[in-house]
From TrEMBL, chain B:
InterPro entries: Cyt_c_assembly, Cyt_c_biogenesis_CcsA, Cyt_c_biogenesis_CcsA/CcmC. Residues 172-376 form the Cytochrome c assembly protein domain. The keyword RNA-binding does not apply. It is a multi-pass membrane protein. Keywords: Cytochrome c-type biogenesis, Membrane, Transmembrane, Transmembrane helix. This is C-type cytochrome biogenesis protein CcsB. It is found in: Membrane. GO terms for biological process: cytochrome complex assembly. GO terms for molecular function: heme binding. It holds the Pfam family Cytochrom_C_asm. It comes from Craterilacuibacter sinensis.
Amino acid sequence: MRFAIGLLTILAIASIIGTVLKQNEPYTNYAFEFGQFWFLLFEKLGLYDVYHSGWFLTILAFLVLSTSLCIVRNGPGFLKEMKAYREKASDTSLSLMSHSVELDGEVEPEAVRERLQAQGFSVKEHQREDGSRVLAAKKGAANKLGYFFAHIAMVVICIGGLMDGNLPLKLGEMSGRVVPETRNVPQSQIPAQSRLSAGNLSYRGNVTIAENRSADVVFLNAGKGYLVQELPFAVTLKQFHVDYYSNGMPKLFASDIVVTDKATGKETKATVKVNHPLVVDGVAIYQASFGDGGSPLELDAWNLAQPQLAPVAIKGVSQAAQPLRANGQAYTLEFGDLKVYNVENMAKTGMDGDKTLAQRMNDARSVKHEKALQNVGPSITYKLRDGQGQAHEYHQYMAPIMQEGASYQISGVRRQVSEPFQYLRLPLDDELSIKRFMRLNAALATPALYDEVARRTADKAMQGGAISPEMRAQFESSVKWVLARFSEGGFPALENFLDERVPQDKRQAVAQTYVKILQGTVGDLMAVADSRAGVAPLAAEQNSYRFLLDSLVASSALHDYGAPVYLQLVGFDQVQASGLQLTRSPGKNLVYLGSLLLVIGIILMFYVREIRVWLVFRPGRLRLAMTSNRHNRDLDRDFDRERDALETLIREQP
Amino acid sequence: MSSTYRLAAQPGFWRSLDLRDWAYALFVLVVCAGAFYQYDHFMDVYEEAILAGSALSLVALGWFWKPWRWYFPLSGVTSLLAIQVYEHDLARAQSAFLLKYMLSSQSSIMWMCTLFVLATGVYWAGLLTRSATLQRMGSGLTWAACVMGLAGLGTRWYESYLIGADVGHIPVSNLYEVFVLFCLVTALMYLYYEAKFAARQMGAFVLLIISAAVVFIVWYAFDRQAHEIQPLIPALQSWWMKIHVPANFVGYGAFAIAAMLGAAELMAMRGWLAGKLPPMEVMDEVMYKVIAVGFLFFTIATVLGAMWAADAWGGYWSWDPKETWALIVWLNYAAWLHMRLVKGWRGAPLAWWAVVGLFITTFAFIGVNMFLSGLHSYGGL
Ligand code: HEM
């Protein structure tokens, strides 16, 4: 027992470690987190998969053994005790019981027997040699059965668990018969030593299947690598469904699948959903995850280094990489996931501190909060990697997104996966296209246009009386200078110039002048670009002005974009993938049986009270003794009641 | 002669039922039959079986624990009243007077919170002044809090359907809802033992832990808006949830009561509050009984959880942190019970252990959600 408690304590501590340390992560993560020394030590101790480590399983086995031994050792005694009435108990032992009393008087033994039986006792009579009679009665012997049930249950559950555990696999790995695969190679090229046959008794593995594709293996995590488990059938994903609630939370994940038996060709069609697995030949198929299954994409590539060029249409497939040449350089374009549905909270998050008490009370009373949730449409992520292997990551939304009354094309960029995306907003024209912005951006990068733009701006300035004729030439050259600077590096370029050349006390004023010039001239730039392209000019209205200012901001930000091309998602053909988990767990029924036994055992142990009663009848005297498996107030009460009853009976005796 | 003697024996179970027991049973059956006729076409076979099972369990509960015979109908009627006043329009929660200040689920729950805190104060006043009247008031307030709590949960269930037919679900699906459940279950279990052992002094201690939960609920609602009703993600769309979660909370509630009694017992041993606490044997016995009940329900809950996991996650046991901590809690109380039953331990060691057990249980209940990630990560803070 002490040994068992010790083992249980170790087990509990091990379990705690297993919950604190994330289990079954890729080994590189651990090495990164702990450093080489600890990583190796922890690996030796099996801490990355505590629950399947040799020592953990050994402790479990010892517990099973010790509990079995306990059953074997206590069992026979318990059974004997259960059956026994102990009617031969001596007077001394009866009088020593804590609930024992001797009464003066006599009663009819038959009446007592009747009463006991009416209360559910079974009674045995014994005639002693000294002539006295003993009635020994017992009730609730099932309490002892509870001990058997609960402890046998432990053994049964552990055996079931061991059957479903990966002990055979561990042994195989230790003997070198099974070797986990660590390379990332196509499934068909994985060697036999990393494959498990369909006859394997128990396994739990995952596979991701794209729509209209099939799989006949699953992958099992195995320490540093993985193993391939053959299935007795092939699973084909016909279609994957996701439904969302109006607030954007997922509501349904379901896969329409067809399971084709390899031996007989028999087909089983079914839809598996979360909480509704399909069981075929003892193998259960679960909906585990979902994602993009490699969707064909269409994109427009805008050359940012030569913005005068028209966009080039390119094709790609999500989750795949392809080469890209731009401006004589070779890049790799690595597409991530296509997400068709993006729900964002568009409400401005007001600071909580601003709320009045009344508002807070209202909030606390209401179980539904209006959120400005909106599906902002499809998006794609991709990385653009240059010849040196450096990459920026991009997040492109496909549809125009309204912000404060104007529409934008939104794209995010970041240098590191750990950073948040920085979002760039390209303003859209009346046709919700980025063409006009791109035209302006191109004009900005065309110094040949500056003369005309400067002339137009100067004309306007003269008309407005802002400058005098003598100042015109100098004004025009300022305009051209600001345009040139801006086109080189956006606002930061102007700022740099200020920091380097202008005394601190003048910077503010000069900066304002530059901004004024830019704002004054950007409309003319647009007009020149439009007339060159043969497009109707921008209407002179408030929205247009906002468009122009947004364009300046966007154009400036594009200098920081880090890519030679701007890729705009213009079309896709969604192919989804479903992550299925397949398990075979023959021990499950044993575990359930054990659980049932356990619950029954606990109920019997705690809620069936074993009570024993002895009555010794001799001339003129009557002894009453009672015991129970639990000494508590219930027994006090029962004892008092029996004694009172007997006393009443004695008094009524004629 | 022998007839008098036999009469003194305990009457059989059926004969012990009185008119009120039958009236209560009739009430439950009529209500369930009504629900059946009105909603049968929405139910599948399982749901019909569950409705029948619930009716029988409710009757059994009322017969076993008499106060339930008025408590449950009263809470139910309060919920039904709220539903009437709603007139199928959720917005009336902010306009209809009765809903705004009393009966909308949030108002009910806030009343529950207030009443629990009041009850705590009154129980303590009663304990310190040895006033039986104050302690009776404490009981009364606790009962009132329980009525508001159960009514609030019932109303919340209905409100979830007002938000959307596909959103509706039983309110045991997130940390906020289960905290309300925890207060309710703990208080009800306590009230049972309080009456059975005529020891109202225990209330001062048990209500302390309930008040702590109340503080959390209020913070969670006001600061985090956690009371908003959210639809169920696919993994939670399961019948198992309806039994697994409440069964777990009978366990947690029981362990919490045991810990508070353990604390009271330890104080009594040091002579604190001398003469004001219930007898040590009483606390000892209640502590044992409540752990036994908690252990049974916790076992059932864990088994049901395993069966649910087998449906939802592809395996009955995944060594997910929550599962593992449930096992640790379970082993802890199994060891406690072994020590008492096999080794015959009593008194201080078990009292300390029960107190420590609460920390383990609390970690399994909230700590796991806060500090560890896993499959169970539905109720993050
Ligand atoms: C389900 C809850 C359990 C209850 C209520 C329970 C109850 C008992 C009882 C009443 C005994 C005493 C038998 C006697 O009188 O000697 C006992 C002994 C024992 N139990 Fe449990 N048990 C439970 C679970 C477990 C578990 C989980 C284990 C370990 C995996 C375990 C292992 C043992 C061992 C090793 C003994 C000692 C046998 C001996 O050395 O005499 N039990 N238990």
